[in-house]
Amino acid sequence: MHTKTIAQLSAALRSGEISSVELTTLFLARIKQHNPALNCYISITEAQALEAAAAADQRLKGGDATPLTGIPIAHKDIFCTEGVKTTCGSKMLDNFIAPYESTCTAKFAAAGAVMLGKTNMDEFAMGSSNETSYYGAVKNPWDQGRVPGGSSGGSVAAVAARLAPAATGTDTGGSIRQPAALCGLTGLKPTYGRVSRYGMIAFASSLDQAGPVTYSAEDAALLMNVMAGFDERDSTSVEREVPDYTAELTNSIEGLKIGLPKEYFDDGLDENIARVIERAIKAYEALGAVVKEISLPNTALAVPTYYVVAPAECSTNLSRFDGVRFGHRCDDPKDLFDLYTRSRGEGFGAEVKRRIMIGTYVLSAGYYDAYYLKAQKIRRLISEDFRAAFETVDVIMGPTAPSTAFKLGEKADDPVTMYLSDIYTIAVNMAGLPAASIPAGFVDGLPVGLQVIGNYFDESRLLNVAHQYQQATDWHLQVPAEFQ
Ligand code: GLN
Question: Could you read off the pLDDT of 106-120 as tens digits, one per residue?
Answer without folding.
Answer: 999 999 999 999 999
